[in-house]
Design goal:
- The protein is an all-alpha fold and 289 residues long.
- It has nine helices and two strands.
- Strands 1-2 form a two-stranded antiparallel sheet.
- Helix 1 packs across helix 5 and helix 3 runs parallel beside helix 5.
- The longest helix is centred in the middle third of the chain and has 42 residues.
- The protein is globular, with a radius of gyration of 21 Å.
């Protein structure tokens, strides 16, 4: 049953239109280079329109893999496709694995705390996920390779792409945990101070405790978790092949929006912690930017 007729799941005509338009998303990210307003995370602001961080993050990130899986289980039937190739499900599985970690496990079970997110940013992220999930899901479910023959000769590329994806995902998880440790350490120190002072009051929030982690790629850049995510999606694109337009668009969309965010973030680190704390670290690309 279609959720939105000819859009979820998409007809070929609508999918091709959406897929074409999605390539121009980087043009919209240009605004990020002009303003520092980004009401999320360390740059979150006080507003009556904020959504609690954990709830906001889960609900704005999960629609991507939910949309993709919905299309994977509905669109093939509309086109008389009885069984999709294994590689299609491998790509769907990798996409889902990333977002299960990013949208569910990380915010709801691993993160000690998360700053609130403004509803405007939540809405934009929600739409990004739905559109991206539709583009990739449509390609995997019916409008890309749908037979084993379509994948002939691509086994080495698929295997290499899976290894690169796994390397990026592990790097992303490692550096995410370094950021979590900042807040865990702050909470432990705060608890020790309160115990030493005999203060039995409820602990204060540690939402706004920030320092530059010292391990892994944090030694040379400020946003290694972003860089590792790029590696992930480059591996994903490699599996699909250079002609996989949805995966290619996703890579470039991620790079353009995350680069601007990382440069903004570096300015924030310098303004908040000082140039000495930041040192010679680049924002996101070692030795370059």
């Amino acid at each position: 049953m279609a959720i939105v007729e000819n859009w979820l799941p998409p007809s070929r005509e609508n999918w091709e239109l959406l897929n074409w338009a999605w390539q121009f998303f980087p043009l919209f990210t240009a605004a990020q280079w002009l303003v520092d307003f980004y009401p999320q995370g360390k740059t979150s602001t006080q507003s009556r329109f904020n959504i609690p961080g954990k709830i906001a993050w889960a609900t704005m990130e999960a629609p991507g893999f939910i949309t993709l899986l919905y299309i994977m289980f509905t669109l093939p039937q509309q086109h008389g496709i009885e069984k999709l190739p294994t590689s299609n499900w491998v790509m769907a599985g990798l996409f889902t694995t990333h977002y299960l970690y990013r949208a569910i496990i990380s915010p709801l079970f691993l993160n000690p705390s998360m700053s609130p997110i403004h509803v405007s940013l939540w809405a934009m992220a929600f739409m990004f996920q739905v559109i991206n999930g539709t583009c990739i899901g449509g390609w995997l479910a019916a409008y890309g390779p749908v037979t084993m023959k379509d994948w002939e000769g691509r086994v080495p590329w698929v295997e290499a792409g899976m290894m690169i994806f796994a390397f990026g995902l592990l790097g992303n998880m490692f550096h995410d945990d370094e950021l979590r440790e900042v807040r865990r350490a702050a909470a432990r120190n705060q608890k020790r101070r309160q115990a030493a002072q005999g203060d039995k009051k409820t602990e204060k929030s540690v939402d706004k405790v920030y320092i530059v982690p010292q391990n892994g790629l944090f030694k040379i850049i400020l946003y290694p978790h972003y860089l590792c995510e790029w590696v992930e999606w480059c591996g994903f694109w490699m599996i699909g092949g250079l002609g996989c337009v949805p995966a290619r668009s996703f890579v470039f969309n991620e790079i353009t929006t995350m680069t601007a965010r990382a440069v903004q973030g570096k300015r924030w680190y310098i303004a908040t912690l000082g140039k000495e704390q930041v040192g010679n670290r680049k924002a996101i690309i070692p030795g370059v930017l």
